[in-house]
Amino acid sequence: MSEPVAAIQAVGLTKVYGKTIAIDNLNFNVSKGEVLCVVGPNGSGKTTLIGLLAGIIKVSRGKALVAGIDISKSSGKIERKIGVVSDFVQIYDDLSVEKNLLLFARLYGLKASDAKEKTDEIISLLELDNKRKKLCKDLSSGIRKKILIGSAIIQEPEVLLFDEPTAELDPHDAILVRNYVSSVSHSGRTVLWTTNDLSEVERICRRMIILGSGRIIAEDEPKRFIRGIAGTGSVEIFVSGIKEENIANIFGSIDISWDITDDKEVRLIVNNEKETLDRVFTLIGRMGASIVSVGSKKPTLEDAYLQVTGEFKK
Question: Hey, what domains does the chain have and what are their CATH numbers?
């Protein structure tokens, strides 16, 4: 079986500002049709990475190919292949919603009739009909973000570079954008999406990269990442009939934690592993104690994320 075609390929990608290394020797691929989420603490390099891949920021070392084009040698060709949502790109305040979208469509090379057709499609898709004739300077930040997203997707680019696209959107509009991304990825277009919202990672991405100080510190599918870092979770067992002074002697050979509840019950916190749980339940039975309740706590993406990014938090 042949390897998937890489829509984005970074090899030793590095960006240095003076003595600060903003992006540090990144090596990764994004397959055609994949949605890759990039997360990390503020200052980890997410926005700089978008700028590099878009050809807006000059590469210091290494290289990247986006839609088959070397970003360092694109000479403007890259603009016809990508759509960018980032602070690096701005809409025109003194133009209406409709004229902004028409302008971007024409800049991307669409004929006048095609530009009008695509503009109408984007206005309908993003539910901007009642804002069509309004000047952008008179609109809220959330509506302006939708227009910027519209300008990025109007040419149906091969690769979408989205830097926190839903950060200013209300929940309804965020769903619109996430649904759009899911649909275009199924049609073979590629998305690199940065976010600080870990719930978005679980909703939309097949694979995630975590940046820390400009370096890749983790890369995996979200569910596998959770299992690999945070394990399979824990089980809470509430027990009555065990004296507090006996707990250490009873369970001392097992890796568990415990405390006493307000109802004088013992709460045991046990790793969710069959062998460990079997030993705990056996010991409880031998003591003649009563199990009041049993509950499980599954690890979350946030739990795993915080474990690997703690030292990078600024």
Answer: 6-81+157-228 (3.40.50.300), 232-298 (3.30.70.100)
Give the global pTM. 0.84
Query: Do residues 51 and 57 touch, judged by C-beta distance below 8 A?
Result: yes
Give yes or no for a contact between 95 and 137, defined as CB atoms under 8 angstroms apart: no
How far from the centroid of its chain's Cα atoms is residue 60's Cα? 26
Checking DSSP bridges between strand 6-17 and strand 61-66, what pairing results, if any? antiparallel
**What's the farthest any 2 CA atoms get from each other in the chain?**
83
Q: Three-state SS across 184-204?
A: HHHCCCEEEEECCCHHHHHHH
Q: What is the pLDDT of residues 197-224, one digit of tens each?
A: 999 999 999 999 999 999 999 999 999 9
Among candidate residues 97, 193, 86, 181, the one with its CA nearest the CA of residue 147:
97
Q: What is the DSSP letter of 4?
A: P
